[in-house]
Amino acid sequence: xxxxxxxxxxxxxxxxxxxxxxxxxxxxxxxxxxxxxxxxxxxxxxxxxxxxxxxxxxxxxxxxxxxxxxxxxxxxxxxxxxxxxxxxxxxxxxxxxxxxxxxxxxxxxxxxxxxxxxxxxxxxxxxxxxxxxxxxxxxxxxxxxxxxxxxxxxxxxxxxxxxxxxxxxxxxxxxxxxxxxxxxxxxxxxxxxxxxxxxxxxxxxxxxxxxxxxxxxxxxxxxxxxxxxxxxxxxxxxxxxxxxxxxxxxxxxxxxxxxxxxxxxxxxxxxxxxxxxxxxxxxxxxxxxxxxxxxxxxxxxxxxxxxxxxxxxxxxxxxxxxxxxxxxxxxxxxxxxxxxxxxxxxxxxxxxxxxxxxxxxxxxxxxxxxxxxxxxxxxxxxxxxxxxxxxxxxxxxxxxxxxxxxxxxxxxxxxxxxxxxxxxxxxxxxxxxxxxxxxxxxxxxxxxxxxxxxxxxxxxxxxxxxxxxxxxxxxxxxxxxxxxxxxxxxxxxxxxxxxxxxxxxxxxxxxxxxxxxxxxxxxxxxxxxxxxxxxxxxxxxxxxxxxxxxxxxxxxxxx
Length: 559
Known about the structure:
Blueprint: H1 6-12, H2 18-25, E1 32-34, E2 40-42, H3 46-49, E3 57-63, H4 73-86, E4 91-95, H5 100-104, E5 112-113, E6 116-119, H6 121-125, H7 131-151, E7 158-163, E8 167-169, E9 179-181, E10 192-194, E11 196-198, H8 203-210, H9 214-222, E12 225-229, E13 234-236, H10 243-250, E14 257-261, E15 266-269, H11 284-293, E16 296-300, H12 308-320, E17 326-331, H13 333-339, H14 352-372, E18 377-382, H15 389-401, E19 405-409, H16 411-414, H17 420-430, H18 447-459, E20 464-466, H19 468-479, E21 487-490, E22 511-519, E23 524-529, E24 548-549, E25 555-556
Parallel strand pairs: 3-16, 3-17, 4-15, 4-16, 8-11, 17-18, 18-19, 20-22, 21-23
Antiparallel strand pairs: 1-2, 2-14, 5-6, 6-14, 7-12, 9-10, 12-13, 14-15, 22-23, 24-25
Helix pairs in contact: 4-17, 7-8, 7-10, 9-10, 13-14, 14-15
């Protein structure tokens, strides 16, 4: 039997009608809104009916800093949920919706892999239930209303040079990062500099993911700061009377999406903020729905414990009053060798010396979870066929010396069966009583102290340098009363530092904050570090070149 791609595996397995998945989960047909036979939305009002039901246990899956060698965080999340169900536990997995930018860019499909996938993977990776488009439409409606207000006399006195809201599109398109619009005469608007973010980085995305109900959504939308007046006062979406129409566009997008894994485990796939330039977690609504409907809920936060996990804790858990019961830290031997400095072409060769040089990256992520956040953790080694026993044993020894257990994950090849060892260790951790959960900084700390704490404690930096523009904006935001908000760091995912080339566990570096931006609706401050951009570009050979559809409508090339 030859090698099967992820999409070939997904297309080869018969999946159940989504009504059956919902019924097994305990979701009544009244709350189910079908999008064909295999995907559905769940009415968020169901949460009100379930409010007195006790919550299940929340399990976070995070990872080391990602590499081209691959880690498989989503794959492990799916496989762990399948494994828990095999052990007789009622489990669900909650994931983010893939952005079409990475799908057509460097990453390809993002619905897990091998025999640990959520399906229908083609729909999930492409338009799915239209949430991304609704978010983009709501964001761009607000942008249009800003420029329309200026065109029709600018009663609010918005300063053209101080508009911070950008338009967005769900695609990697570097050409749109900086544009000039409103050209060719007065009838076409007022000329000004503008730009686009990718939809996953928009504040509307963050708001959708952090809202607890429709009224909360509207309140958050109302607080979006679109820019400033000539007197330096903030102008909001509420000032433009935009929140009602925006919420109308988002009324269906707010409802969590229900799909299934290849082993028919229920899966909520809802919301998709990036973790390097946004807060990197699926929706609060989907998470809370999972907690009410299952005994164990597995969720993943984007990239490593320096980004997604930090924001999961310090932003999502803080705002939604969540407390993780255990954490899984995913690593691969190949990725650790990459962090140790080995060339990509040599990743399949045993090299214990290079592996040992890369393991400190893993140890820092362990430290973040177990020491900084004081949560019990297990390292999941996502096994590749080329891993040698000596390499696996070396990783196990180093982790155990650090006081953390290790479990092999073979869910890519074996599905839930390959995650039983990991599932059993997660259950042991939950019952261990080692959970002393805490945030890494307090609400009342000044913004610079919050940024400094994250940089020193989570990244291991020696300190933070600020551009004059960043210092000025931080001072203004604190004067405007936004200083109590948590900080969402925008930083490269490839390194603990803000320099993507610094692999492993770098020492003696400082973080550079070049600017900060208020996301008052979402409820956090974004600190832009290094050369991170909120609109990615396509690679030289994007995944889009490999994706196709045949005469029957069958899609290929999505990994």
